[in-house]
Amino acid sequence: MLPRFLPVQRRIRETADVLSLIAEPPEGEKLPVFLPGQFNMLYAFGVGEVPISISGDPGERGRLVHTIRDVGAVSHALLQLKRNEPLGIRGPFGKPWPLDQARGADILLIAGGIGLAPLRPVIYHLLAQRHSYGRIALLYGARSPADLLYHRELERWRRVPDFQVRVTVDHAGRDWLGDVGVVTRLLPKINLDPADTVVMLCGPEIMIRFSTQALLDMGMNTQQLYVSMERNMQCATGSCGHCQFGPHFICKDGPVFRYDRVEALLKRDEI
Amino acid sequence: MKDIAELLRQHPFTTELENEIIELIAGCASNVVFQANDYIFREGGDADHFHLIRHGTVALEMKGPGRDPLSFLTIKDGDMLGSNWLLPPYRWSFDARAVELTRAVAFEATCLRAKCEADHHVGYEMMKCFVPPLLERLQMARFQAADIYGA
After folding, report:
1. Contact between chains at B148 and A171 (C-beta distance less than 8 A)
2. Domain range holding A78?
3. A267 is a domain residue
4. Of the candidates B68, B99, B139, which has its C-beta nearest A173's C-beta?
5. Quick check: A56 and A64 in contact, CB under 8 A?
6. pLDDT tens, residue order, chain B (151 aa)
7. The domain that contains A183 carries what CATH number?
8. Where are the domains of chain B?
9. A113–B contact, CB cutoff 8 A
10. Residue among A101, A41, A9 at smallest CA distance from A236
């Protein structure tokens, strides 16, 4: 599968080391439909390819948004792209968040750091289809206030009635009036029905492990929890084996997994 | 106005305590109010009280030369504030600043330690209240030290 090249239309600085790149097809060309939680392989000419979750609105068909953190050679090269320069894209790939199965239930989203990016399409979907879901809540943890993604949208979401948005950081200065501490400390503050809640978690694996444990301690079961996993993905079609995770390929069988399918694997070393 | 024992019966930190113990320790407690930006205690000061937060937010802060104070934890409704009073040298190791109007129950540490020493059952029950939040905060400190979002 060859990459398609789309010109970068806009770069949005999210934090010191995170940018959102917005790419749009030439007039008359269409973009493939994506589902929240899916990812694209983004190609930087002569450098390489990386999997990046789609972070834009699934209802907005005319552009693709990817939020990228500058962590390696490829992501660094991608973040150097200027307006109208071509961004190579293959995709979308992977299993999405279970939004259809979750209809009628309360929804709890837990994001850590850059993990808010793959959940942002879920938020757009939930707000567009608000009548189809129960109460919704977002718990978001980051290193510091300067590391929070999507500042303006967080403020906007806070004002949405019946959408509980709680943000916490690991450390902060005096200008931060929100919570400081780990994301699980926010769990007792939200108003959801644990027996009828679907949880979608995305963030560092350590955060996933301690958050899922806290949710299970609250009386939820492993089949209510969904996590987005990350491994070294190369082909994105389940052929190369780089992202093998026990019996699963993250690129093809994930990146979103129901927790009971990966719980045992998450507790084993070197997988 | 509710008496102190009634407030303690309703506070998540002490709600599991036997009624007799609540009545006993209420004798060491008083109602306190802090305005926004009041310091509840300062690093290096005598740890002669601890607080149960009823309403409000308290930032735990550390200072370093040439930089603004850094908050590493916020304490909120239902939380316990301060454990340095438990063991010598009874000295605070960070600052605690009210971020907003904060109402709390304050315990006089010498009084409470004396009651725990006089009746070890009271001391043990109090320790069972303190250990869970202390372990939780220790675990949180591990996550912060590991910088999990930056990794």
Report:
1. no
2. 4-93
3. no
4. B68
5. yes
6. 469 999 999 999 998 999 999 999 999 999 999 999 999 999 999 999 999 999 999 999 998 888 889 999 999 999 999 999 999 999 999 999 999 999 999 999 999 999 999 999 999 999 999 999 999 999 989 988 888 887 6
7. 3.40.50.80
8. 4-145
9. yes
10. A41
Note if the bond before A92 is cis, omega within 30 degrees: yes
Between A and B, how many residue pairs show a Cβ–Cβ distance under 8 A? Answer: 64
- Domain endpoint, select from A93, A121, A138: A93
Q: What are the tokens at A162?
A: 């019946």
Residue pair A202/B139 in contact (Cβ under 8 Å)? The answer is: no
Residues on chain A touching B81 (C-beta within 8 angstroms): none
Contact (CB<8Å) A172/B71: yes
List the structure tokens of A114: 């850059």
H helix intervals, A9-143: 73-78, 116-128
Residue A220 lies in a domain: yes
Q: What kind of architecture, by CATH, is found in domain B4-145? A: Sandwich (2.60)
Candidates A112, A174, A176; nearest CB to B149: A112
Rounded Cα distance between A79 and A96, Å, is 25
Indicate whether A71 and A146 sit together in one domain: no
The ipTM assigned to this model is 0.87
Separation in Å, CA of A210 to nearest CA in chain B: 10
Residues A86 and A174 in one domain: no
